[in-house]
Amino acid sequence: MAIDSSIFHAGTRALRVNPGAAGYDWRMLSVPSPSSTFWVRLYVRSSVDLGQSDHNAYFQAMTGDGEPNTGDNMEVAEQYCQIVLNLHDDVTLSTGGETRCGSNGVKLPKDQWHCMEAYFDGAKGGVQVYANGTKIIDKTGVKTLNYKTFSFGYLGFHGPARTMWYDDVAVAPERIGCAP
Predict the structure, then answer these.
(1) Of 73, 78, 129, 134, which sits most exposed with the smallest number of CB within 10 A?
(2) Among 63, 76, 4, which Cα is nearest to 33's?
(3) Is the peptide bond before 68 cis (omega within 30 degrees of 0)?
(4) CA 52, CA 82: separation in Å to the nearest integer?
(5) Could you tell me if 64 and 149 are in contact, meaning their C-beta atoms sit under 8 angstroms apart?
(6) pLDDT digit string (tens) for 44-72?
(7) Residue 124 in domain
(8) Average pLDDT over every residue of 129-144
(9) Cα–Cα distance measured from residue 170 to residue 180, given in angstroms and rounded to the nearest whole number
């Protein structure tokens, strides 16, 4: 990871997550969540489309302390050529998607900034995910989880390799919203 002053959404810098190794690749930063129910807002950009065929993750709410193999991780990820929600390989598809590529699930184009928002309701077992102001995932009745940490960056399981950028990341008890 590095601070990048050549590509950024606002201000003068963004966090660049450089391509990693093939196979399992954990490159994430973790911060404490304000409670088990919280909102996040982050601007994300990738050198490949977000929504590849195989499982990789961009950010997640965690019951552990940020160590990837401790506790439960509710991932905002990709699989089946779309953005998905993934908890222990139990996948919730984005709006319009099916468990196959070409099924009209939500993808986000490469080389553009996208405002992503997520509401993690650990107390009630719900998750909502928004992309550029549009709700793309609305899941209720998921396992009740006591979230303690929010992580963002890149968690690669299958690739392809990519560079990702994050800017204007915020974690709060209330919805923050996207700047115009």
Answers:
(1) 134
(2) 63
(3) no
(4) 6
(5) yes
(6) 999 999 999 999 999 999 999 988 888 99
(7) yes
(8) 94
(9) 16
Domain of 78 in residue numbering reads as 2-172
CA dihedral sign of residues 63, 68, 70, 74: positive
Read off the pLDDT of residues 73-104 as tens digits, 9 standing for 90 and up.
999 999 999 999 999 888 999 988 889 998 88
Q: Residue 116: which CATH number?
A: 2.60.120.200
Neighbouring C-beta atoms of residue 143, cutoff 10 Å:
12
pLDDT score of 108 more than 90: yes
Give pLDDT, residue 97: 86
In a domain, 145, yes or no: yes
Whole-angstrom distance, CA of residue 89 vs CA of residue 179: 33
> Is residue 179, in this structure, part of any structural domain at all?
no
Q: Which uninterrupted H or E stretch holds 75?
A: strand 73-79
Q: How many domains is the chain built from?
A: 1
Torsions phi, psi of 95, nearest 5? -55, 125
More reliable by pLDDT, 142 or 41: 41
Would 67 be classed as within a structural domain?
A: yes
Taking the C-alpha atoms of residue 54 and residue 65, their distance in angstroms, rounded to an integer, is: 26
